[in-house]
Amino acid sequence: MDIAGVIKRKNIPFHLDEQAFYAFVDRVTDGKYTNKISVAQKESERGFDEYTLTAKDGKITITATSGVSAGSALNAYFKKYCRYYFGILTKSGVLPDVPPDTDGVLTETSVFHYRYAFNYCTFGYTYAFNDWKAWERVSDYLILSGYNLVLNPIGNECVWLALLQKFGYSYEEAKNYISAPNYLPWQWMMNISAFESEYPDSWFEEQKEISRKFNKKLKAFGMSALMPGYCGAVPDDFATRYPNENILNQGYWEDFVRPAILLPDSGLFAKIATAYYTLQKELLQAGDMHYYSTDPFHEGGNKGNADLQSYAKAVLSAMKETDKDAVWAFQGWQKNPDRTILSALDKADTLVMNLHGDGSPDGGDDFLSTPHIYCVVNNFGGEQAMRGSAEKTYYLPHKMASDKNSACVGIGMIPEGVECDEVLFDLIGDVAVLSTPKARETFLREYISARYGIVDDKLIMAYEVLFEKIYTRDIVAYPHESGLISCPSPEVSRACFWAGKTELAENEKMNVHLISVLETLLAYYDECKERESYVTDLVAIARQLIGNVSWRYIYGLNNAFEKRDKKAFQQNAEKLLALFPLQEAVVDCDKNLNLQLYLDKAQNRAHNDKEKEWFTRIAKRLITLWSRYGARGLHDYAPREYGDMLRAFYKPRWVKYIQTLSKAIESEEEFTMYPFYDDEYAFVINSEEYTREISKDVYTAVTSALNAVKVIS
């Protein structure tokens, strides 16, 4: 028996709200097809989402098992017949006034019970400050791409604000426990608490309303939210208020003290858990959501001598106390979920989102035959870098879903940030709703046609190069970061502490392929220049080229200094600094790589100057120092190669470093590392406003970068 399917159909029943669907059509077609589409719900023949679509004489007819399945049908039609692209970052093309006829019937059946979206970190690095308009756009994309289970921690801070007050905390004390909006993901993952907390009261009411709208919309389309669960988290001072309870301190995560865990044998555990879930359902209108995500002991939390099996059963029992259909969802990451915990739970009550599907498709042990979802984290920290494993992502999940010996029941996209590599999101969205993956050439032909408005063999060959030479690895220690955003030091070889060491030979090999792809794409500039997606791709490749080549001069600079070779040092310094204006010109052409537009999302949530200062500060801190003092493992974890970041943050850092080395060479004195923290913190707290202007001269910027790299290579 297909237990996972039975649970899914019970918890996320097939549903299609026609009124909600027509409103969705109005938005994604800009009103063009509002009265030209007819939709109706059909029964599922195999227990999975299905759809059929036909278009004739200017009328589109869709039958589907759910609203989200109908959305994926519409997306398939857009790409195949309209050359219209609606991505997670960009939108390209103009829909024909009259819907084109289909040559037969478009029909598909998914083989995945669950198509899952988002990582907790996504709600910090990209979506922390979204208003409802922004979330409406994101959720429309999710519907077009067929996702039916979506993480929703929006407004969880409202639950905690009310919860703590029920157990003796004042309003201000409870509010101060809650970390800043873009740091909340790590609080919900049991890593931090009470960081940069200066919330205006208005925030909580606004977030509550957004979460309610999000949950309501998901339900209307036959989708579900995955809500944050409760595993015993309590504030660090909880033991001083309740000294007789059994509380397990969790130690440190980087330089943060983790929230403590109240163990289930404490008298308060069941009371707090029941209050938590009751408040969640009431405040966020999540009564129809039955999936709960919580990861105790995430990334090394202290387990002490806790009886993990008893603990696991108690946590699940607390979920089911207020929701008999509750399913405990874990993030499969590093050693999580703990197999002792997992082994104590019934398979029907558990689900694992395997964050590292391309690297470890079944977690090494099929997660003890627990239903799991093949997920892809194609970037870490939202850092702009071309990374991922396109071939595996497209084909391997289907192989696992059809393997009778595998417990794989779904596919998911869970980036830490959504700023780059749109093709990776589109791969998952395309394959998630198919019964069988298309041949690569077929996928690419439809995809390029929709994204660029034209397609031919040369463009397909260029994308083949991306698949076979660039998007080939999904690893944590990614070695192709930009050197321009790395923090200068004599030993520097990466931007993020957790990244792989940059190897010049590898970068040069990568650039050979990127040059050929970029030259091909540029040949279509006149035909494609009005397409946002095309421009985004030009910028992404040119940016990667410059970032790769920067390491030649960084290594050259440090080697020359070590040898006290003044001439070589000066040459490498000049060439490195000359790359900054080239890179600035490139990224200035992409609205997704604009510092002020990034800050605007945060600042727009403010109601006065004091709030604006806070929102600005926390938005800047996350992409620079990250933590309070720039802890080694977090500093520059989420760097952004935005135009004004290069001008105002990264280049000045390199200039001061070079000046410090130069003085040491001239004076023949021992080098003393320049302390960057003061300058970095000054950037975080300053109130300067940056440009919102997006350059239209993409051809000049990209060809200048291309020609510079070709000369160097």
Produce a short descriptive summary.
The protein is α/β, with parallel strands linked by helices and 713 residues long. The protein is built from 27 helices and 21 strands.
Please write out the topology.
Layout: H1 3-11, H2 18-28, E1 37-41, E2 50-56, E3 59-64, H3 67-82, E4 85-86, E5 91-92, E6 106-109, E7 114-117, H4 122-125, H5 132-144, E8 149-151, H6 156-166, H7 171-177, H8 184-188, H9 201-220, E9 224-228, E10 233-234, H10 238-241, E11 247-248, E12 252-253, E13 256-257, E14 260-262, H11 267-284, E15 291-293, H12 308-322, E16 327-332, H13 339-343, E17 350-354, H14 366-369, E18 372-376, E19 388-389, H15 390-401, E20 408-413, H16 422-431, H17 440-452, H18 457-470, E21 472-473, H19 504-522, H20 525-528, H21 532-563, H22 566-587, H23 595-603, H24 609-622, H25 643-667, H26 677-685, H27 698-712
Parallel strand pairs: 1-3, 7-8, 7-20, 8-9, 9-15, 15-16, 16-17, 17-18, 18-20
Antiparallel strand pairs: 2-3, 2-6, 4-5, 10-14, 11-14, 12-13, 19-21
